[in-house]
Amino acid sequence: EVGVxxxxxxxxxxxxxxxxxxxxxxxxxxRQLYYLHAGGHTQIFNAVKAEARLYTNYDSTDMDGENMAExxxxxxxxxxxxxxxxxxxxxxxGLQIKTALPLGEVNYFTLGTDLNYKQGYWKIRDADGDVxxxxxDKTMTTQALYAQNETELWQRFTVTLGGRFDxxxxxxxxxxxxxxxxxxxxxxxxxxxSAGRAFRAPNLSELYMPTWQMVPGIPFMSNPDLDPEKIxxxxxxxxLKLPGSTGLKLTAFYTDARDLISNVxxxxxxxxxxxxxxxxxxxxxxxxxxxxxx
Length: 294
What we know:
The protein is mainly beta. It has one helix at 204-208; strands at residues 2-17, 26-44, 48-73, 76-103, 107-126, 136-153, 157-168, 174-184, 189-200, 212-215, 218-221, 229-241, 247-266, 269-288.
């Protein structure tokens, strides 16, 4: 089975007049988005499942309005408003391939790859056409390979062991393992738990975008020295099948994030920075029921 799809959306927003510059001038934003994807899946020898997906997206933004400009003087660096044009466009193209097959009587193995290419362009000019700050014209590639195996033991336990390796052209490589366990204590009670590690490289905007204003009056800056995010996560839960068609699920979770990328305001300037450590914990509860017979 094969499928192809795509689309386009565009919009123009009139933001009114500039508020910090005189005389007041038009403040407009024009956005466009194109996307195309194709995919398919098949089954070989009634055992091996294979699927693939190819996609490409293109989005652009053109804005006429107020921009924050960095101006150096005798008493240091100052930021002021200047009227000008801000143009951004980005392209995101990728290929995903995955195969899955049983290995013996108790194992089910999945192997896949995820290839991605990104390109970003961002330029801000003043009314005379001169570039404000710097121009972003960068590319980024990511190659990932992942594998996972599910093992059924004595019809009571399911052990899931997996891993993913990411190689990024703008950051370091990383291996992310994951372990999961499902224990069916009875037909109505089951326990589950998992532990894993995740990785996210900083994107092109976080690394290289020119200075602009996201919050009125505050310059917003990129940071080419960002480190990738590294997250360790753990969860433990129980599922109960109550009389009738009602089920109850309880899950507790904990995450430990290192070098989380966040917007930090220091000295009146907002900048992407790595946070040394962020911990999150909590629980979730859900009840499911089918009160109607259909």
